[in-house]
Specification:
The chain is 27% helix and 29% strand. Mean pLDDT is 88; it is low at 1-8, 14-20 and 22-34. It has an eight-stranded antiparallel beta sheet. A two-stranded antiparallel sheet has the order 8-9. The protein has 204 residues and is α+β, with helices and mostly antiparallel strands.
């Protein structure tokens, strides 16, 4: 009887330890899953919504810049002002009358060396010839554009920083990409009928 009671006591202790261990594992897995969650941006346009997952791990500076501008309402009323089917659609810096809209922000560091390729459906920052000149304008790749990827830390090789991926609404991107274009106020590949960004909202 003494042995039986001792055995039952040990068995209960073992079960308790296992349950505690499982609880810790469960908490750990939950925390890890929480850490992997990325911000989601919704670009609400006049022709539909584009949902993007922003990669804040690979491009923290770029994602923060985009989120800050979105939360400030900067993108409201801007358009996709440069549209080239089979290449990309670019927006976030001009209004419907093709006037520049200043973001009022300083240029950010180019994070194109983060290993993310300019594949179809990715969002990347637009810039001038200066590799570190991006402020607000972005583009969504309409096809794989490997020639835009980082190759070296020099003017020719810096490439364009990818910071997210379309997760829903690629049909809207495709629709925008086939828009009729013309030259407006000196800007080539401008849409005949502007596609307006009504809002950009962030779900973090």
């Amino acid at each position: 009887m003494i042995f039986a009671r001792h055995y039952k006591h040990n068995l209960s202790a073992i079960i308790l330890i296992l349950l505690i261990g499982l609880a810790f594992v469960g908490c750990s897995n939950y925390e890890n899953s929480e850490e992997k969650l990325m911000p989601v941006a919704t670009i609400n346009t006049s022709v539909g919504d584009i949902h993007l997952e922003l990669n804040s791990e690979a491009a923290p500076i770029t994602v923060k810049n985009f989120i800050d501008l979105a939360n400030a309402g900067y993108y409201e009323g801007t358009i996709f002002h440069r549209i080239i089917e089979g290449f990309m659609i670019q927006g976030g810096g001009l209004t419907a009358d093709m006037a520049n809209k200043s973001s009022g922000t300083a240029p950010i560091t180019n994070e194109a060396n983060n290993g993310l390729p300019n594949n179809r459906g990715t969002i990347a920052m637009a810039r001038t010839m200066d590799p570190h000149s991006a402020t607000s304008q972005f583009f969504i790749n309409h096809k794989d554009n490997s020639f835009l990827n980082f190759t070296a830390e020099n003017t020719q090789g810096w490439g364009y920083a990818v910071f997210g991926q379309v997760i829903s609404g690629m049909d809207v991107v495709d629709q925008i990409a086939i828009s009729a274009t013309t030259t407006v106020n000196g800007y080539q590949d401008a849409p005949v009928e502007p596609v307006t960004i009504l809002s950009v909202t962030i779900d973090e």
